[in-house]
Amino acid sequence: MIEHGPLLERLLAGEFVCPISDESGYRHLTNEETREEIDTYLRPLNRRLASNEDGSVYFLAWRQLNDNARDQLSRQLGDTLNSLLPLLEWLQLVQEALGRDTLAAPGDVLKPAEFSAKCEDNQSLRERLERLATDSFFGSQSDQLDAQVKQVFKRLKEHGYLLQPHSERQVFVVTGKIDYLVDLVRFIRDEENLPIEEGSEEGSGAQEALL
Amino acid sequence: MSASEHALESRLLKTGSERLALLGKHADVLMQAYTRDEVPLESLSDSALRKLLAARILWRPDEQSGVKLAPKVRELIAEMLADETRRHVNADVAETLELIRALVHSYREARSRGEHWRLEQQLMRLRQEVDDLNGRFADAIDSLWQRLNSDFGFVSQLNDKIRENDRAQKQIARLLDGLALIDFDELIELVGSDGSLRKLLISQLQQQLSNHYTGLREVQRRLIELMARFRKQQARSRLISGMAAFMREHPGFVPGNYARRSEVPGLVNQAAPLSAAAAPALDRNLDSRLLAELLHQLPQPRHTTQTVEAAAPAQAQESSLAAARQQALKQDVEHFYLSVIDQPQAEPVSALEYLHESPLEWPEEIWLFQVISEYQGLPRSDQKAFRLKQQESQASQFNHLRLIHDVELQLAV
After folding, report:
1. Nearest to B247 among A50, A52, A84 (CB)
2. What UniProt keywords are attached to this protein's entry (chain B) (predicted)?
3. pLDDT category, B408, cuts 50, 70, 90?
4. A119 lies in which domain range?
């Protein structure tokens, strides 16, 4: 158990462990025996190891849902929902600004400088960034583009969606917590029966059926 | 017989080389036609155009339309350039098999008649056909790998990538169907006991085709994996933009409180953070020694003493006190301004008189200073409502320094 000490600490601190945030820790967690060991250890703390559906990210869940746990979960859910729209808008903004046709995914490298440069050249991106940065979740007080971008990245790092491998270099890597966020969005859509399409619009399934 | 065959061959050679040379001679025009829809006729002479049409390098679909590159030539160029957007996969195995059967029959006829030259010719054509077949599969597999390894990089949009992947998978299905057409039992029967045919059509071909089969299956597996990834990415992108749009349209949207359900969904069950704190403890002998060592290793603090006055909290208090006093002064001055407004007949009020009559205890200089700065701090339109008159005198006759003794404020009517 002692070799999993650092990993346990991270998990207890509420971190999400994925191949990006902690490669060796994640590798250990893919071993069922280790997972059981950790679960046994966590039992008296009323916690257990949990993962998202794909198993791409691990975190700790309550083992017994007592009233305290439920209160805490309600508050946390409220916080998450408040930060949901700014996070989704940021994801869209990154996708558009960097001209990608896919969403930022775990392992993607993001450079604030590149992002600023793209927003600087485009008035509409610039305005959207400004709106986003001054949102209470990101909480930028500045009217300078660079400072706003810096604040946005800082907050995303604090919330575990981004990782900064070298503290002196402005280069960030997207972590597996993004997967968790996407899963949560999908969950809310399904639970609330929201009219949001996910599948292909072009009916390629129908094309395949014709063949 | 032999002489006429030779004559035929030399004529073929001559025409073939002449026509191949046309490709080089008109390379520029042909490449322009490759990248455009039609051949730019202005750069071709009439005779050159006639020759290119005769060689079936170019063709004219009908009288009205322009001259275009022949499909085979387009394919040849795409193949040479490994241009994945236009490279074709041709899996027409059935026709090749027909041809092989026919060639085997005429090979046998030639052998039974003892026509050696024809025998050689037929064997060579058979070899060419088998090579062609092999080459077609090898090319197709190569093209598929190229597309796969570049993540379909020749198209930029995800939708196009999905379509290209789909197309590639269909090509594989056709290639696999083609491979399935080759029936080795039939071929064994066809070649009979002839050693060279057996080697060419059975052992060699079987080996090659089994390699192609493995290659195709591998490519197919990878394509399906990649497709799943593309679709997942596409789904994520749509989900996120859909949810963002929904939340923007419904700012009051609040989902159910999943934490209050009897069965809390696994995804939202995320335990509160716990910090595994620890402090130095001296209840173990071994540890105390270690702690002592650590203590000695601590770097010497650079500033050993610090004066109490310089300590940060005291400073903060003082500055907040100063801010409070400043605020009080400002408020008192504002009251002075209000009393000026309240004066009947808009009489001027002396700032110092007001100060002395009031219970306020501000030093005169500071009071006057604030009254003046309050006036200067007013918006220009508000300034016009007041008249500020300064009672001043020259400090000395040697310079223009003026001393203000008092100010009078009056409502400007």
Report:
1. A84
2. Coiled coil
3. confident
4. 80-192
